[in-house]
Design brief:
This protein is elongated. It has 19 helices and 14 strands. It starts with 7 loop residues before the first strand and ends in a 6-residue tail after the last strand. It has 480 residues and is of the alpha/beta class. An eight-stranded mixed β-sheet has the order 3-2-1-4-5-6-7-8, with helices on both faces. The mean pLDDT is 93. The chain has two domains: 214 residues, NAD(P)-binding Rossmann-like Domain (Rossmann fold); 264 residues, Rossmann fold (3-Layer(aba) Sandwich). Strand 9, helix 13 and strand 10 form a beta-alpha-beta unit. Bound molecules: uridine-5'-diphosphate-xylopyranose and adenosine-5'-diphosphate (ADP). The site of adenosine-5'-diphosphate (ADP) has 22 residues, from helix 5.
Length: 480
């Protein structure tokens, strides 16, 4: 098959990955028509919204990219079959959550949406089509996709349809997705068909330097994606484990991180101790890796990686436990303000957010939580905590009825001062910039004394907390 120049791309799945990725491809390749399709009409409508502040994904810079390309060579549609039929290249970018039941439940990825896509492609494709796996997938998924596509090649009557399968994992992080797409550290393309690889290289070559486009075999590409996330998550668990040791011995994890990060072999990034990693990828991908290792008869390797996830949940429980211990061993009926619910700053995403586990532990202990986050809405928090919000209690009159009965409750707070008013403790769980700039001299008198600040993200200035007469716990800070 000669190297086809790609004129028309279809992406199945208009989610967090598919939408921004295709928007950047369309923006950088004006000669290629890009159609993003999804079965979810509401999502497609949101992508077509004339008000660019209401796109279904919030990413800095995304609105500008969509403004330039939409309607020119970037289209969002629910006409899945039509778009596949017209495409030279089809990206599969659908959700692959961890299985909740059956074989591999809790660890393996649920591939039903990927499989459905592959079948959809066999039904609608015409001529030669390059199918690109974009979703994060367990190693050897391409084999399943290939088998499904091959069945169509054999059974096609009349007009000949042929397929090539590539793996092209994404490495974008939330909040920096557009930057990650526009100047990637590397683009990884795995496959066996050199012409198909060249075709995809020609798309990326519109803006990515050749030396950053890596070619591998299919399995290496799939495994590299899981391994990259596992290594990043492992660094976080490593520094969090050291944070606990710092607290026990009088060292300071920020100093240790700076010291080891200056070693160019180690590097300074991803050494920020905190409440543990969240987000849609790290835990899912490691569990996937664990499942694969067990499947391939490598239980010791599986246990090694599993410990990264275990340390992460341990860190979250440890923070909740620390709060209870510092508040004289009980938080029952106590008002605690939680600042930050998103899994990291600059996103409204709460998937696997550390705040969920920490808040749940405190609710279990009967705490009264005022929760503030500048981007997460209260319905999302209620879903994550599996508990509806209660009304904000009247601080002047003391405890609510629920508090007296020992039940944990929570309510959303739109402003920080009202979240903190009457609280025994403030816990900072997301590193939003506004939490760095709080005026503790004003906030401290609103709290019930003796009051605590628990800074799990190293955002406060310790001297300001002390000057305000508050007790401070910072992650990884031991008392010398
Ligand atoms: C991650 C990967 O970075 C990205 O390449 C991949 O494609 C998807 O998964 P993302 O989940 O968006 O991206 O966020 P990331 O910035 O990697 O942070 C993940 C979690 O680790 C967050 O909860 C963050 O707060 C935490 N983290 C990160 C730390 O606790 N300390 C650090 O030093 C860095
Ligand atoms: P990701 O974070 O990987 O992008 P999302 O859940 O944000 O995942 O998006 C995946 C999208 O894929 C959803 O909008 C979903 O409706 C869509 N999708 C899933 N299966 C199909 C399918 N067979 N055809 C079209 N779209 C699909």
């Amino acid at each position: 098959m000669p190297v086809a120049s790609i004129r028309s791309i279809c992406c199945i799945g208009a989610g967090y990955v598919g939408g921004p990725t295709m928007a950047v491809i369309a923006d950088r390749c004006p000669d290629v028509q890009v159609t993003v399709v999804d079965i979810n009409q509401t999502r497609i409508d949101a992508w077509n919204n004339s008000d660019l502040s209401r796109l279904p994904v919030y990413e800095p810079g995304l609105d500008a990219v969509v403004r330039r390309a939409r309607g020119r060579n970037l289209h969002f549609s629910t006409a899945v079959e039509e778009a596949i039929a017209a495409a030279d290249m089809v990206f599969i970018s659908v959700n692959t959550p961890t299985k909740t039941k059956g074989l591999g439940a809790g660890q393996a990825s649920d591939l039903r949406w990927v499989e459905a896509c592959a079948r959809q492609v066999t039904k609608s494709a015409t001529g030669h089509t390059i199918v690109v796996e974009k979703s994060t997938l367990p190693v050897r998924t391409a084999e399943a996709v290939k088998a499904i596509l091959a069945s169509a090649e054999q059974s096609s009557d009349g007009s000949q349809v042929t397929f090539a399968v590539l793996s092209n994992p994404e490495f974008l992080a939330e909040g920096t997705a557009i930057q990650d797409l526009e100047s990637p550290d590397r683009v990884l393309i795995g496959g066996e068909d050199p012409d198909a690889i060249d075709s995809l290289v020609s798309v990326y070559s519109h803006w990515v330097p050749q030396e950053r486009i890596l070619r591998t075999n299919l399995w290496s590409s799939e495994l590299s994606k899981l391994t990259a996330n596992a290594f990043l998550a492992q660094r976080i668990s490593s520094i969090n484990s050291v944070a606990a040791l710092c607290e026990a011995t009088g060292a300071d994890v920020r100093e240790v991180a700076r010291a080891i990060g200056s070693d160019s072999r180690i590097g300074a990034k991803f050494l920020q101790a905190g409440p543990g990693f969240g987000g849609s990828c790290f835990q899912k991908d490691i569990l996937n890796l664990v499942y694969l290792c067990r499947h391939f008869g490598l239980p010791d390797v599986a246990n090694y990686w599993e410990s990264v996830v275990q340390l992460n949940s341990w860190q979250q429980h440890r923070i909740a436990r620390t709060v209870v211990q510092k508040l004289f061993g009980t938080v029952t009926g106590k008002h605690v303000a939680i600042l930050g619910f998103a899994f990291k700053a600059d996103t409204n995403d709460t998937r696997e957010a550390p705040a969920i586990r920490i808040a749940k532990d405190l609710l279990e202990e009967g705490a009264q939580l005022a929760i503030h986050d500048p981007k997460v809405d209260s319905e999302q928090i209620a879903r994550d905590l599996q508990l509806p919000a209660s009304t904000e209690p009247d601080v002047e009159s003391g405890l609510t009825r629920a508090a007296l009965s020992g039940e944990g409750t929570w309510w959303p707070s739109d402003d920080i001062a009202s979240a903190i008013k009457g609280a025994d403790a403030v816990i900072i769980l997301t590193e939003w910039n506004q939490y760095r700039e709080l005026n503790w001299a004003v906030l401290a008198p609103l709290m019930r004394q003796p009051a605590w600040v628990f800074d799990a993200r190293s955002v406060v200035t310790p001297s300001e907390i002390q000057a305000a007469g508050l007790n401070l716990w910072r992650v990884g800070e031991g008392q010398p």
